[in-house]
From TrEMBL:
PROSITE patterns: MFS. Keywords: Membrane, Transmembrane, Transmembrane helix. It holds the Pfam family MFS_1. This is MFS transporter. The keyword Membrane applies. It comes from Nitrincola tibetensis.
């Protein structure tokens, strides 16, 4: 006999809500993936050098960090879907206006707004997926992040198609804005999942192990920094090793394709009793690939494929693990995405400095160091959590 909770999760209304979050994440993936391919066109129309236009990445990262802190507080205090709609409107305006701007300063402002709204939608959907599915959330969260990868994969193809049809990048941005507009109208008619902490006066004061939470924040920061570093620098690494530029660019697509496929494969594996085993398997495969990359003992295409696979389940597993051992409210979810934004700024920058001064071998070495820190931190977190439960 199904429990009342399980029965409530299987209603058509519930599944409509879940699919809505998945579609929002496809749009978020397109928002996140469009900046890179559009960068040369934005640089040309704003008369900016490539070093100047790179400021857009900093503006987006700052929007991510500030947006994660602000939106986390908002999701605790107000109706979640109303906040999603507000951030959706900001994202729509940003996508409509950004491709027409001819000033680098204005581009930075609107890319900041896009980063702010993007991370707010991201944090909100993750949080409300937990509210909706409770202990059954992990597979749905993995599917959520698969949708992000799907959006990031298809947007370069859409941009190429729109350039072929209209010879401008505006249409690709506007298509994402239209998709966001439709899904925001759809979510307007759906109730926000119940916040399990709503009956508490102050959800942020609920007791939790701050050392364990700090360990989680560091894990999220290191993981996303590593993911962004590999995706952002693998093509440069390949060209430094003598690979043709076009062939090197394909490595980025291979990485995102493998990462997205891995998240789909991981859906049935995301169960609380498998979290530790799944993370250990991912880390073991990742370390193996970086060692092969450092010693140049395998095809870079194969290494990229398997490294993407090793990265695929880490974020959804960490998020599911966090929701399992610590009650995640809006504020704590916001802090997680602040850590994500910080890692996305610091680690790729460090990789660029090391590549310039130490050459291509510094990339796998840096990632190995990050993996070592993650393994040590995860060990601390699990040992600390075990000891806490025994007290």
């Amino acid at each position: 006999m199904n429990s009342p909770v399980q029965a409530s999760l299987d209603t058509p209304k519930h599944w409509r809500l879940t699919i809505t979050y998945w579609v929002i994440f496809i749009c978020i993936g397109m928002m996140g993936g469009i900046l890179g391919p559009a960068l040369p066109f934005l640089a040309e129309q704003s008369h900016s050098s490539m070093s100047q236009i790179a400021l857009l990445f900093t503006a987006r990262a700052m929007g991510n960090i500030i947006g994660s802190l602000v939106s986390g507080q908002l999701f605790d205090r107000y109706d979640g879907h109303k906040i999603l709609i507000l951030m959706g409107i900001a994202a729509i305006l940003g996508m409509v206006i950004t491709p027409s701007l001819m000033s680098l300063g204005l581009l930075c402002i609107f890319v900041f707004i896009l980063g702010f709204s993007e991370v707010s939608l991201n944090a909100g959907c993750n949080l409300m997926m937990i509210w909706a599915h409770k202990e059954r959330a992990p597979p749905f969260i993995s599917a959520l992040h698969f949708c992000y990868g799907l959006g990031a994969m298809i947007i370069p193809l859409i941009l190429i198609m729109m350039l072929a049809l209209f010879d401008i990048i505006h249409a690709a941005f506007w298509l994402v804005a239209v998709a966001l507009s439709v899904i925001m109208l759809f979510i307007l008619k759906q109730p926000t999942p119940d916040n399990p902490d709503r009956q508490q006066r102050d959800t942020s004061s609920a007791p939790y192990d701050k050392a364990v939470f700090g360990g989680l924040l560091l894990l999220f920061s290191l993981y996303v920094g590593m993911e962004m570093t590999f995706a952002g620098w693998i093509a440069t690494y390949a060209t430094l090793r003598g690979t043709d530029a076009a062939d090197a660019a394909i490595l980025v697509s291979i990485f995102w394709l493998s990462l997205s496929a891995g998240r789909l494969i991981a859906i049935p594996l995301l169960r609380p009793h498998l979290f530790t085993y799944l993370l250990c398997g991912c880390f073991a495969l990742a370390v193996s690939m970086m060692l092969l990359m450092y010693f140049n003992r395998a095809s870079l295409h194969l290494i990229t494929l398997l490294f993407g696979l090793s990265m695929s389940a880490i974020f959804p597993t960490l998020f599911s693990l966090g929701s399992h051992i610590i009650k995640l409210n809006g504020k704590r979810t916001g802090l997680i995405f602040m850590a994500v934004g910080t890692g996305a700024m610091i680690v790729p920058y460090a990789a660029g400095v090391l590549l310039e001064h130490m050459g291509e071998t510094s990339l796998p070495l840096l990632i190995l160091v990050v993996l070592g820190l993650m393994i040590a931190n995860l060990s601390f977190l699990l040992i600390r959590q075990k000891r806490t439960r025994q007290l």
